[in-house]
Design goal:
Layout lengths: L2 E6 L3 E8 L2 E4 L9 E2 L2 E3 L4 E3 L1 H5 L8 E2 L2 H4 L9 H8 L5 E4 L5 E4 L6 E2 H20 L5 E6 L5 H14 L2 E7 H11 L11 E8 L4 E8 L4 E9 L4 H20 L7 H18 L7 E7 L2 E5 L3 H7 L13
Parallel strand pairs: 1-11, 11-12
Antiparallel strand pairs: 1-2, 2-3, 2-4, 5-6, 5-7, 8-9, 9-10, 13-14, 14-15, 16-17
Helix pairs in contact: 4-5, 7-8
Protein name: DnaK family protein
Pfam families: HSP70 (PF00012)
InterPro entries: ATPase_NBD (IPR043129), Hsp_70_fam (IPR013126)
């Protein structure tokens, strides 16, 4: 039976399989290579992936996102910094459930834990992989952050087991990246000569740098530095707060407690960030943004760099 590799992201998830033609990225029901890592709950159904994304603005308070960063989290001193950080980005309200496990209030009688949310998502991943490959899938390899402890990895294994798919290995992202690089470049490595590579990855929710030493027969991870509080969403939130402050100043209105309005701001901030990566200007304009008031804020690369000044230094408490 085929085995699949699952890159479980905070924002989206990719699935790959290996065949005679090499590595193939699995396409989902919409023929996309990335499936939103979202699970949403309504009165009578559970929405997963693209279906949850479609209903996100109308059902934000019953949607769980950033599942990867919630797995294994408890209301204890060792997890408190991460829990408080994730609370800022949560849609469904985080609550403390049985055994001090962090769960989410989604409008149902019982709160839903991250493991309970991940199970149906993995079932969806398994089903779409089988549909794409045309054969049953029994096992997987899951890529996880470097900072994951045994508790977090156990949560992944539990979710896989409950989803009916065997987890052959829980692999750190940094190791998976190093393995991918080395497999297809063996001819570059010479016995007796060091070949050291630094991999940097700034994802949606974290930033990682990994130093790897290669030989023709093996590779060794020499060091990894990871900040689980610095990522693309950190930049987005800086822009969101700037847009929010400008809107408040001009209209006197505060949309910060309106989930739909804040999701609109997040989308606009992310779009502006991407535009400014290649252009000098990217004004933000949203018609009838909140209570029939428009949002119109000029934004350029210089303003963005000034806003990001405090976020450029890595926080030592999140380093591993």
């Amino acid at each position: 039976m085929p085995i699949i590799g699952i890159d479980l992201g905070c924002l989206g998830t990719k699935v790959a399989t290996v065949g005679r033609g090499g590595v193939t990225i699995v396409r989902n029901d919409l023929a996309d290579r990335v499936t939103p890592t979202l699970v949403s709950y309504t009165d009578n159904e559970r929405l997963i992936g693209d279906a949850a994304f479609t209903s996100l603005k109308s059902n934000a308070r019953s949607t769980i996102r950033n599942i990867k960063h919630q797995l294994g989290m408890t209301d204890t001193a060792e997890d408190r910094d991460v829990v408080e950080l994730e609370r800022r980005f949560a849609l469904a309200e985080p609550v403390v459930a049985e055994n001090r496990v962090i769960a989410f209030s989604v409008g149902r009688e019982e709160p839903v834990t991250a493991v309970a949310a991940l199970v149906p998502f993995l079932k969806k991943v398994k089903a779409m992989s089988e549909s794409y490959i045309g054969a049953p899938v029994s096992d997987c390899v899951v890529a996880v952050p470097t900072w994951y402890s045994d508790v977090h990895k156990t949560a992944v294994l539990d979710a896989c087991s409950l989803a009916g798919i065997g987890c052959h290995k829980v692999m750190q992202h940094s190791t998976a990246t190093a393995l991918d690089y080395g497999l297809f470049r063996r001819s570059m490595f010479v016995e007796g000569q060091r070949h050291v590579v630094v991999f940097t990855d700034i994802g949606y929710a974290q930033a990682t740098a990994t130093v790897v030493d290669y030989t023709p027969k093996k590779f060794t991870v020499l060091a990894t530095l990871e900040d689980s509080a610095l990522g693309g969403r950190s930049i987005d939130q800086v822009v969101v707060q700037h847009l929010l402050a400008q809107f408040k100043s001009k209209t006197g209105l505060d949309p910060s407690r309106n989930a739909k309005a804040m999701l609109k701001l997040e989308e606009a901030a992310e779009k502006a960030k991407k535009i400014l990566s290649a252009n000098k200007d990217a004004g933000v304009h949203l018609e009838c943004f909140f209570e029939d008031e428009d949002l119109d804020v000029p934004l350029n690369r210089e303003i963005l760099q000034d806003l990001l000044g405090p976020a450029r230094s890595v926080s030592p408490e999140y380093r591993t």
